[in-house]
Amino acid sequence: MNLILNEGQFNLVYNSFSFVIACMGASFLFFLLSRSRIAPQHRLAVTVSTLVVGIALYHYMRIFNSFSEAFSFVDGRWVQNGRPFNEGYRYVDWLLTVPLLLAELVIVLKLSKANTRSLIIRLTISAVAMIALGWPGELSDSGSTARAVWGILSTMPFLYILYVLFIELGKSLGRQSPHVRKLVDGLRYLVLGTWVIYPLAYIAPSVIDNPATSEVVRQVGYSIGDVLAKPLFGLLIFAIALSKSRADGYAPAGLDDDTTSGRDESSDMTHA
Ligand code: RET
């Protein structure tokens, strides 16, 4: 059955994708241009953030094009024209970015090597399982049993990830400074608060009868989730890396805001 969206519904999805592209592009540049503010030993987490928003920027451009090509404007309404809207970009994006986001969180904490390795391996496996199990469900008919079963299977690794972040990671936080501990705490709640958007958007077609409304809710929901989970999460990671850099005594020349104006340029050169 061809989906029909009214002008407002089509524009809402279209503009959400456009907004996500702007957020990913701006945060990509920000992470790239600000990396010199971070001490070299804390830069890896920011590098991973840069990769995540770069990957998402690319995928959202593809999603945006695929969406606009899949609909034609006929008699004042947007009618699906037979060219499929490729939802696969979204899942491929998550397959790459979700393990990276989790790795970023572990890396910035600078735990022991063995602890870091074990956390990254377990989180990566569960993230891949969560997304791989969600994909067949996303392709199933709305309201079908298959959609519900795949959704439940995918929720299991999702719960395991939350368990690792809240219970296991909590034990490792003792060694962090109070400021960093507060930031990491905020980060965990950001993950909890934003990641639940995804399963909620996933069940929209099963609980909302109107196919146009449920499609809009799902697409806008995933888009909001992606902006919070990638650029905003990346900014918090950046703040942790910055705080740790300062605690390590890292003060790059020319970057201490308004104190630079009266300084002799040759001293900046020697630090460059
Ligand atoms: C699916 C299927 C239904 C059940 C669950 C899901 C969870 C998805 C999540 C995705 C997170 C994506 C992120 C992307 C940002 O880059 C697959 C929708 C639990 C949690 C964080």
Mean pLDDT over the residues: 91
H/E series: EHHEEHHHHHHH
CATH class: Mainly Alpha
> Structural class, from secondary structure content?
mainly alpha
Euclidean distance between termini CA atoms: 62 Å
Hetero groups in this structure are: retinal
Explain the overall architecture:
It is a single chain. The protein is mainly α and 272 residues long. It has a single domain, classed as Rhopdopsin 7-helix transmembrane proteins (Up-down Bundle), CATH 1.20.1070. 75% of the residues lie in helices and 4% in strands. The protein has helices spanning 7-33, 43-70, 88-109, 113-139, 145-172, 178-195, 197-207, 211-247, 265-271; strands at residues 4-5, 71-74, 77-80. A 3-stranded antiparallel beta sheet has the order 1-3-2. Helix 1 packs parallel to helix 8 (211-247) and helix 7 runs antiparallel to helix 8 (211-247). Bound molecules: retinal. Residues 94, 97-98, 101, 130-131, 134, 137, 151, 154-155, 158, 195, 198-199, 202, 226, 229-230 line the site of retinal.
How are the elements arranged and paired?
Blueprint lengths: L3 E2 L1 H27 L9 H28 E4 L2 E4 L7 H22 L3 H27 L5 H28 L5 H18 L1 H11 L3 H37 L17 H7 L1
Antiparallel strand pairs: 1-3, 2-3
